[in-house]
Design goal:
heterodimer; A: alpha/beta; Rossmann fold; 3 domains; six-stranded mixed β-sheet; 23 helices; 20 strands; 21% strand; B: mainly alpha; 2 domains; two-stranded antiparallel sheet; 9 helices; 2 strands
Chain lengths: 574, 253
């Protein structure tokens, strides 16, 4: 018998009685497997996880038919507490899942062990061991609230490792982390898999997920659409043009195979290194410079910069937090138009920089001019007419009873006339794909959609400058596409769009200019081609160029490439 | 500001329950004592205890901030208006300060000072987790103890979130410096996300606790040990005896 068996399961939440979250789903999972799960938002991925951990039906109620068996026990006939000794669960938000009652990392890791009534010595040994398994033994005396997102997430893992369950379920464990945190968490997960644990990971980040998983499942509208060996599943999904985030290296290889440039039969590559090995066998190629010069793949840059007015000017800006920490240390630059992406590791000063753009923060030295206005002389509410800023966490702003009213909040505040507001709201909801949910309560939507509501409410203010903080975080393939279209559209409208992002693929595709920040200073500031071509400099602020750029470099191409199309054109000029 | 100050003084080594018992005992005693002298002596002794524990400066500063304004107010008001005023102490123009009132004002002030100092010493010298463990050892429900611990971190967390929410709403053009109706709206724009966010994190957290066997019954143990020594028992019983003696003295005399 398999470790986990699900038989013809249908479940609808009490809150949405006529829309089953899962329909007639059957599957079994063997001990020791690493199962990756992906799919569009609201497809039923979290529901699937909650079923295995017994949160359904013991915590989330609804209509339940079928059967879930974990290690021979029917989950309906046990409790969450009992199941927790076999099934560990890590949630998306790195901070909410800590107990909030521990003053040190070690206490947090020991919490479950204390409840199990082990001896004091055993509690300490097991808690320390699990901390060392996630590489946090040096932080054991740190206060849990002083950890980074990646560290918090590893601590959550450690506190569950201490219980020694057989199965680990991680629901989007990395969507709120920076690239460094993502690497850290995936390293720990794959280490656990090697030690024999059964691991189930839900993620949109297929670049990382498929390298480690033995099995990939795509859930679509409550049913399993594909399930099998990751390469096979990805190829089938790519063939069907199904919207999941297929890794670029695999997509390139698939297209070159279809064009007969690579022999069929060998396994498709999943990593940049594998792809480089495969592509280096192709001798017949054009040069990258020729492809780029042909210009058939790159985006048209907006008109010459000389005619543009300076929308935002930073004059030797310094910012020190009241605690004395210097977050910005001498930034001078001016921004005129197009899409500007701000990249850099957590703590590099990206969010502090963004908060200077609408006066939420004022420089401690130097000055910031927003369309000629010195931010020190205007209120935030006044500057909001010039600069719209959409924050990372939508839950910090949503408070109206329908999506439409929520989106209307911004335009009403800046004094748009009723007809004008109506037009702006409709257009913003359209751009963010929210037409279908306009009458719904924002809080009933999933996180990716809530985030798009937050973004729409800022777009609807129709400001000449827009700042989006991590808009693609946690979004599925469709959400990322929508945001890409949005940015291109706004730039076409002549607006200046700043995007603070860890998503280098997004930056490579949409930015006209990329600014890399490092320790409160500008490290690099140039076209994406030039910035992403400087891999060593970027590494200082923990930014890795997009996969396709790294691939081109490993192949020793003469120019920096930014998109799979460019790379394909090199190897398959027709 | 009200955080634990680590140390290994005799005060730190006492069981938290002992410290609570002393604080409660002293509170009862100072409210039984009839004149300012007793409470004043106890207050001085407590400052000595704070010195032994190594945080006299912190206790003195905080106690001054908390009780200082109170001292001025209570002595002034009682000195002028205490119903039992008979003996003039000081006459400034048309205003008379009375001895009985000033004495009563000082009594009230020293009572409050003792309570504040006792509580500060207890808080500064006790690791919150040790406090929780000690109470569980004495039979407090682990759930109540958890609520106590979590509430310590809840307030700073809510403040942080409230700041983030105000910033996010201002970025959407919400003006905090306009007419009354707008301000009311601003309050909603802040409170609703704050409450909704708190509810979401409560849901996640209760699942996280559940997943760590929090609600399972049976034996529990703790990472840190909070010993209950003979000294602790002696202090607690002595405290009880003193309280009874003082009470008897007040009733009989």
């Amino acid at each position: 018998m398999s470790l986990i068996e699900i038989e013809v399961l249908t479940f609808s939440y009490t809150t949405q009685p006529h829309e089953p979250a899962l329909r007639n789903l059957s599957c079994s999972i063997e001990q020791g497997t690493f199962v990756g799960i992906t799919g569009l938002a609201e497809a039923g991925k979290s529901t699937f996880c909650r079923l295995i951990a017994g949160y359904i039906p013991h915590f989330f109620h609804g209509e339940f038919s079928g059967r879930v068996n974990v290690a021979g026990t029917d989950t309906r006939e046990t409790t969450i507490g009992e199941l927790a000794e076999r099934v560990g669960f890590v949630f998306e938000n790195p901070f909410d899942q800590l107990t909030g009652a521990s003053l040190t990392v070690l206490e947090e890791a020991a919490f479950a062990l204390e409840n199990m009534g082990l001896t004091r010595e055993e509690i300490r040994l097991r808690a320390e061991k699990s901390l060392s398994q996630v590489g946090m033994e040096d932080l054991k005396d740190r206060h849990p609230q002083q950890l980074s997102g990646g560290q918090s997430q590893r601590l959550a893992l450690a506190s569950i490792l201490a219980v020694q369950p057989e199965v680990f379920i991680l629901d989007e464990p990395t969507s709120q982390l920076d690239p460094l945190g993502v690497e850290e968490v995936f390293d720990v997960i794959s280490g656990m898999h090697r030690r024999g644990y059964t691991v189930i990971v839900v993620s949109q980040d297929l670049d990382h997920l498929v390298i480690h998983a033995d099995r990939l499942m795509v859930i679509d509208k409550g049913e399993i659409k594909w399930d099998g060996e990751p390469r096979k599943v990805l190829l089938e999904a790519a063939e069907a043009r199904y919207p999941i985030l297929i890794p670029d290296v695999l997509e390139i290889s698939r297209k070159l195979r279809a064009a007969g440039r690579i022999p069929l039969g060998s396994p498709v590559p999943l990593t940049v290194e594998q792809a480089a090995r495969e592509l280096s066998s192709i001798n017949e190629r054009s040069t990258a410079a020729q492809t780029i010069a042909a210009g058939r793949t790159s985006r048209h840059l907006p008109g010459s910069k000389v005619e543009r007015r300076k929308e935002l000017v930073f004059e030797n800006v310094h910012y020190d937090y009241p605690t004395g920490v210097s977050a910005i240390r001498g930034v001078s630059l001016s921004l005129d138009g197009g899409c500007v992406c701000i990249v850099g590791q957590n703590g590099a000063g990206k969010t502090t920089f963004a908060k200077h753009l609408n006066g939420l923060l004022q420089p401690t030295r130097g000055r910031v001019l927003v369309r000629g206005k010195d931010t020190r002389e205007y209120r935030v509410a006044e500057l909001a007419r010039e600069v719209g800023l959409a924050f990372q966490n939508p839950d910090d702003q949503l408070f109206r009873s329908t999506v439409e009213e929520e989106v209307r909040f911004g335009p009403d505040n800046v004094g748009a006339s009723p007809e004008e507001a109506k037009r702006l709201v409709t257009s913003a909801m359209d751009l963010m794909g929210l037409e279908a949910v306009r009458e719904k309560k924002p809080h009933d939507l999933g996180m990716p959609e809530r985030k798009r509501v937050g973004t729409a409410s800022v777009i609807a203010m129709n400001t000449p400058v827009l700042v989006l903080d991590e808009p693609t975080g946690g979004q599925d393939a469709e959400g990322i596409d929508l945001l890409g279209h949005l940015v291109d559209y706004l730039v076409q409208q002549g607006k200046l769009v700043l995007v603070v992002t860890h998503d280098v693929k997004f930056a490579a595709r949409h930015a006209d200019r990329v600014i890399a920040l490092h320790q409160g200073r500008v490290l690099l500031d140039d076209s994406p081609r030039s910035v992403f071509g400087r891999e060593e400099a970027l590494a200082r602020t923990h930014v890795e160029p997009p996969a396709v750029t790294r691939l081109g470099r490993l192949l020793g191409l003469d120019e920096t490439l930014l998109s799979p199309e460019e790379l394909l054109a090199v190897f398959d000029p027709e | 500001m009200f955080d634990y100050r680590p140390g290994d003084s005799p005060v730190h080594l006492l069981n938290p329950v002992t410290k609570l018992a002393v604080a409660v005992g002293l509170t009862v005693i100072v409210f039984l004592l009839p004149n300012p002298l007793g409470p004043a002596l106890i207050a001085v002794t407590l400052l000595g205890v704070a010195a032994v524990a190594g945080f006299l400066g912190n206790v003195a500063k905080l106690a001054a901030v908390i009780t200082g304004p109170f001292l001025v107010a209570v002595v002034l008001v009682q000195g002028l208006f205490y119903p039992g005023n008979e003996t003039p102490l000081l006459v400034v123009g048309p205003v008379t300060f009375w001895e009985e009132g000033v004495s009563y004002g000082l009594l009230v002030f020293f009572r409050v000072l003792v309570v504040v100092c006792a509580v500060l010493i207890m808080v500064f010298s006790t690791h919150p987790k040790a406090m929780m463990v000690a109470f569980i050892d004495k039979g407090l429900s682990p759930k109540l103890a958890y609520v106590f611990m979590a509430s310590l971190q809840f307030i700073p967390e809510m403040q942080r979130r409230a700041r983030a929410i105000i910033e996010a709403q201002q970025a959407r053009g919400l003006d905090l410096k306009v007419n009354l109706w707008r301000r009311f709206q601003a309050l909603l724009a802040m409170m609703i996300p704050l409450l909704a966010g708190a509810l979401i994190s409560v849901e996640t957290r209760s699942l996280a606790l559940e997943a760590r066997g929090f609600s399972r019954g049976g034996l529990r143990n703790h990472l840190i040990e909070v010993p209950d020594r003979t000294t602790d028992r002696v202090i607690r019983w002595s405290m009880a005896a003193i309280v009874v003696l003082v009470a008897l003295w007040r009733i009989v005399l």
